[in-house]
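Review this chain:
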Amino acid sequence: MTRPDMTGAGLCGTVLAAGWWGVASLLAPVLRLNLSRRLERGKEIPASLPQRRGIAGVDRPHGPLIWLHAASVGESISVLPVISQLLTISPSLNILVTTGTITAAEILHARLPGANGHERVLHQFAPLDVPRWVARFVDFWRPDAAALVESELWPNLIAACRRRRIPLALLNGRLSDRSLAGWGKARCLLARMLSALAWIMARTPEDARRLQYGGARRIDMIADLKDAAAPLPCNPADLAAIERALAGRPVWVAASTHQGEEAEILAASTIIRQAVPDALTIIIPRHPERGADIAALADHAPPRRAAGQFPTARDTIWICDTLGETGLFYALGTPVLMGNSLPGCAGGGHNPVEPARAGCPIATGPETGNFRQAYARMGQRIHYVHTARDIAQWVVMQLRHPDRGGNPFPDPSPSDPDIARQVALAILALGQR
């Protein structure tokens, strides 16, 4: 990949950044209205609305503070080991974590109490990229250093940090071919943002090449934080209750599903029952609030775990629309179809490492670009499907021949357990500049 000619990129980037600043400022009233609509749809909570405008919901603690921004669930989970290492290495450090979704916030509130020093971690919802709002946020919190996770690149936010000499890092930096192409003639704005980052950790060599092509000056580390993540939590009592309810019947799981996939999964379930009449399909939506919508797609109202319901022998679908319980269902060791991967959804896939570590057989649709390296590492242990019939054939084979085993995850390399610590030390070094 040849690096583009960046002659004049400085002026071009400045002009586009000024344009973005102006457009975002003009759109502020519209964005406030949209926040109110999101509140009505359950995508925001009352406390998040002022925080989205940079108004803090809690006081800033005294002493050094590191700010980590993880937009959604996957990014939030991946950064948990880094938070734990930061708390361990620096007992006087405070950490501010911002997220962009309610679900990510709930994951953090559920997982953080298990970390030593968790009382030094604060959560806020990230401000939208309106100049006045991000300036208010940054001026209040005054972080000693900040780290964005994966692809959270926002021009006004980055500019606000640069003006205040707040060193910025990018963790698990990700830039897909589609995203890179999408910047088009605004590539110089991307270069302006990437060149402002003091430290970049790319998720994969492919991401590193694309980030450099996009304008990153230097990438100091290539690793995937998800390799350092702890296994998903699994409460033994809850697992025992689920196993009693299932009573040994054949089960398969469609995990982290997105809108546009469930109809195909329900169609696959119908085909599967023709071969395995007592088979149960467990659907775990990536966003639990979609549980009622998924239930409406089924022929008969299926039980929903969010309502405290377990499947009976007559039920063929069980919608598990609760938060933070996916590990329970992976622990069953049943066949797992990874969502956000079938034709008809947004695409990009989800992390196959989690079910693989539990020994589950894994299938996925073709759209796996966000986790290309993870799927490549597993090679032929992953089965690819496109249609309801593909899914059904694979599930039936797995249910009829469970002795064929799962997809044991390759042993992590010796450096993997140290990834989170290396990242934490790099962030702390930025804060001491």
